[in-house]
């Protein structure tokens, strides 16, 4: 038997109720071969008359024979007049019998009026039996008002009269009237029978949770009556509690009170637990049902039993398919496979689990089908993104079944899932046209909602908006469809505006409304609107919905409010997979809290959750930022354990992780195994890995290989390679990439264009950068930033500030990076006052809070201008504690002071803070040593270098390099390792002699060692940049000389290069650690302000 099954939340199922052959004269729904799920949650397959008396899900149906019997022994009010008959003659008796025979069981309003007229003509208007019959016909024809009028005019009433009217009120969707009549009946002194009890309980169920209190009062009266424990009444009680109460306890109590349970009792309880998502208990009840001892034998499951259990498996997760297979076996043994209701449920279940081929086979084999069967198959195909097949099913079946509104809604959903969206939209327009021709467009709001959803998913948001505008009636689903459509089509502002419009109509948002609107707020960065929506959700109790909380997590993550993310996550009542993934992803994207992503991942595993592909991608991103090699290997092992190692997205994440962790061997192995699974991200990750680990040659070779094999290069690939070329100032390689981008028609792409501007600026061709910037058809903030920073880096501060003004006039708002370029430009040209004006405008004009980088630029601005006394006051005014960047800038400024009068105490303080914060950074010791050397404090300099040796740190060797046709040539100070060293030093000696003849005197103060004058001059003459320029001059060329240096150029070399440019009559471009120097005809572009 079935025991201990996992839980899920089933949907209501479609049931079939076989018609009662008995004649009826009380209100009832006409039985149909198959009714909708909401019409009948119970199946009647009774073996005795009492089972046919009451269907808890329908208004009551009272057999005529019972009415006749009750009428002949009427329960009239105490003191009422005796029943008046028109006469005792045979003729009157025949007329009476004729009227009964003619109108019994009728549900036609015309018959009701005829009977009413005949009763007046023949004098039977006071006849109790015919009066009850007349009331019954009126309520069955939907004329409750006439029935009430007859009721009010009746001189005599009995319990049947009240039962007819209470039942009729429920049938005509007047549950409030039914409850009022029930109270009047009690007040009049009549005792309700089980028909009345059943009807009023059904009326309570119509009210939902609002009807629970009155339903419990009715239950109390039942407990005091003879119907306590009656199976028929108790079945309706179970149904009422299932619909009104959020707990299953009350329904269980009613279930346990039943003296002799029937299949309806068991089916009711199974249905309630299935609806609550407690599938385990539902299947345990199913097992107990088959061995019920109350009957002396086990009860056989009906088609409703199987239908309920099948629908319960729909959302049971991975175990749902296993459960469905077991139920399928029982269905076959029980002979219900050919049943329309069970077959429809099976078709829907198989399709939902992706077994669409099996579902289609079963659908074809079914001898009977209806719209629900077809809808179930179409829904399954639509969920599998097989919209074309779902549409074919509709076209093939539409003539053999009666379509309902849901059929057309499902068809519209299928149109949105076509592999070619344009074809789906075309088919959807055909359906739309049919609605207009058939006059259905305003018949049901669900059709308009379906059209909005279809157009939105097909990318035609304007058509979706048009459908919404023309709809006469709109409900919450209409607004949800429109708001969600705006969000999906990136019309985020329209989404927020629609939310406000909906609220002005008086509608309250649901969870789907909040989710879509919060998603749009996250995309726009509208944190305030998001917080307002969060407050509304709290008032409406929607914050308990885990999906709404997940949307809030995404909002706070997108807007950088990581602390709010963590607080919200802690306060959430429950977490699901999305909650954990959102939190880990938010932390992984945060620079300051990225290490906590690993902590949350560990907590997630300890909580019993299994990571999925999104989890792995997020945690691998965090590991990439942290460069945790060992943890990367552990996560890789988990990926293999969960058998998703061949997922392309996971492999790409592993490539990025290993690349940033400096492990290229695993990268290359994974990449080689991917073969046909490689996509653009795979290639880009591999190229980025090579570049990150400074294997530019391998990166370029991979790019050429991509081009040779016809692999499409996207804008990200070009931008990445161009960025690498810029970082090492490889102009020739950068120009080759530029040519490839032009052939790939990506030159006009704004991302590639911005990268080209940045590359040319960093490679020394500011003229190319400026020319390309002017030709860009579209510019974004990165384009402007690249050009402004390029001008600043080349000492063209005036041009940088002019471009900044043009940027503002063009409407492009500057960001934090823009102001770094602007402040650097002011620093390189000495515009102190203007620099402070721009610094203040960040907050006052653009609402940007200055970051540590901006404060560092201002310290550098004061230091280069020689305003060393103002630096300390500026640092003390900072709203944040200075970090290593500030102290390093201060120490560099004092090192450049070269012994001028200054407050050396601040320099000492900066050195102490640096050595305290970063004792293992060699740059700090070098800066301290240079500061002492510039002031000729040799003993202090010696102590600084000794401290450096004791800390066991090594400084980066200063070097210069040039790119020639035969490769890149690298030189260090006093370098004699080059094969052409003799020629180089001969050229260097020649240059020194010519420079001295022109008046050059070595700047020995830049020889930061305590040596005699001659040794200092010799030391200066063999600096790496001088050897590099001598090497280039050994080759015949008239092209400008381009030299790159990894450290700041010294003052002596700067003077020497001005002489050399005049001697050789060639332009020399020197890029050092901070900026570019353009030497031409004895002058430098920096005008000696650097």
UniProtKB/TrEMBL annotation:
This is DYW domain-containing protein. Keywords: Repeat. GO terms for molecular function: RNA binding; zinc ion binding. Gene3D superfamilies: Tetratricopeptide repeat domain. Residues 1-13, 21-41 have a biased composition (Low complexity). NCBIfam families: PPR. The keyword Cell inner membrane does not apply. PPR repeats lie at residues 127-157, 158-192, 262-292, 475-509, 576-611, 679-713, 780-814. Residues 999-1090 form the DYW domain. Belongs to the PPR family. PCMP-H subfamily. The keyword DNA-binding does not apply. GO terms for biological process: RNA modification. Residues 1-41 are annotated as: Disordered.
